[in-house]
């Protein structure tokens, strides 16, 4: 009986320690990952260009979330990137954009700070961020970001001159509410020397126009938050394949990096630390990525729903 009691108490204590770790320890262990991406035709002017990729800060009135947002900003700025991008869910809801924008103060880079909206940014405050906010409320997001020197891209692109190279930064509007239009986001960018496409979710890879971009950067998944050894993320909020949850992906011509994100929506992470991704562009043999299947005949979230209905 004593031996059984010891085993049971050991299991209880172990469970408590495990829950405490995934709830309080790992979500606070922000990691800076460094990845070199090679492209065969990269212009000489863009060799060595560094991109700080942030995602899913979910800023709101919570001390742990505020700490993670400010820590991500600190870590990104410590690396002195040439370019900073944020791939959506900057705020927990559109109402909080003006109230919590200070949590993202301090981001600046020579080639600018660029962002796209996520499903939370385009939603009213509710437990599942499923109630779409009207356009006039979402504009609060754009205004709040402008005050921070961050440019919001929604189905549009901008050009940046880097010496004699023309760099295009394109951004896709929110996929969850059917606002995404990759074709419009990339319109006119085809003659740029290098095209970076920002989108909140990696499900954008199904869009047939994505191949026009040299590099696709996404977030949304938080890496799955719980990653099991040998299995990976048992679940992630993606339409087709949980292997899209994080890291480098290759789908035909498109190279994509999916960030594990900064915040922890469920306040639980295991083997999936929050991330500030530092990406460096170099010339050379094309970087390989995990091959994932796509449905390139599907052009948007609305088209996906029509196919599945």
Q: How would you describe this protein?
A:
The protein has 309 residues and is of the alpha/beta class. It is built from six helices and 13 strands. Strands 6-7-8-9-11-10-13 form a seven-stranded mixed β-sheet. A six-stranded mixed β-sheet has the order 1-12-2-3-4-5. The protein is globular.
Summarize the entry for a quick read.
By secondary structure, the protein is an alpha/beta fold.
Helix segment tally: 6
- The first-level CATH class is given as Alpha Beta
Radius of gyration from CA coordinates? 20 Å
Shape descriptor: globular
Structural class of the secondary structure composition? alpha/beta
What is the name of the CATH topology?
Purple Acid Phosphatase, chain A, domain 2
Distance from N terminus to C terminus (CA atoms, Å) equals: 58 Å
Characteristics:
309 residues; alpha/beta; Purple Acid Phosphatase, chain A, domain 2; seven-stranded mixed sheet; six-stranded mixed sheet; 13 strands
SSE layout:
Layout: H1 2-25, E1 31-39, E2 50-54, H2 63-78, E3 83-87, H3 97-100, E4 113-116, H4 135-146, E5 150-152, E6 156-162, E7 165-171, H5 182-186, E8 194-198, E9 215-218, E10 247-251, E11 254-258, E12 275-283, E13 290-291, H6 301-308
Parallel strand pairs: 1-12, 2-3, 3-4, 4-5, 7-8, 8-9, 9-11, 10-13
Antiparallel strand pairs: 2-12, 6-7, 10-11
